[in-house]
Amino acid sequence: MTPSEAAQLLGHCAAFDNRTVGKVDARAWSAALHDVPFDEDAVAAVAAFYGTPPKDPSQKLWIQPHNVRTLRTKIRNARLENFQYEPLPDESVGEYLARYRGQVQAIASGRIAAPTGRLALEGGPTRQFVAELEARGWEGNREVPDEDDEPAAELIETVRRTGPLGVVCPMCAAEIGFPCKSNYATKKHPLGKPLSKPHTARIRAASGEPQQTPEQRAAEEERIRAASARALARIEADENIPDADIVEEAS
Q1: Which H helix or E strand runs over 153?
Q2: Which long-range contacts (CB under 8 A, 24 or more apart) does 215-224 make?
Q3: Which ranges carry the DNA-binding phage zinc finger domain (predicted)?
Q4: pTM
């Protein structure tokens, strides 16, 4: 962009922001946009800048050279959105590069109308390929049953999350997806405090292990109480160690 062309572009800017344009301004913009031609896209970039409201309504729009460069590139790239190069048979690398750059330049500049639609993939897998997939257990072509054939409620019943929270707890009756709770009610948790770990019975139920009988649970509780009593006795014995007697040696 030459200084005279930059002056013309600044004239378009002045129509929006009432700036004063001088020779120094034209030379400065020409230096900043030395590789950007003065064309319709550059003028459209100015219009796009001032046609977009600022984020702050009280802010005054004031275009800069980098705004012209950025918006002009966006305008040209928008025309290339659906562009796809169509090669010629047996073309060399040099021919490909020349034709590709020529098509991109023509469409980006607007001299050739931009493609209006995306190219769609056509065709599908061969019968042999589908047969091989089905032989390996693929069911991609199965029909989805209607709601009348398999009610949604039945489908929901078949969905289970993994882990202990995927079953109802046999100890505290915590529902699926909810943590186990203690048997002690508090002011904050009147129905029982949530536990960080699920009950052993719930873990056993989730893994498919058989549940303990009442006799087995009573024996397990008795074993735990006995172990606690032994531990308490050891602690009390350690606390009641008598002081050592000091024996004075005869002189």
Answers
A1: helix 152-158
A2: none
A3: 160-218
A4: 0.46
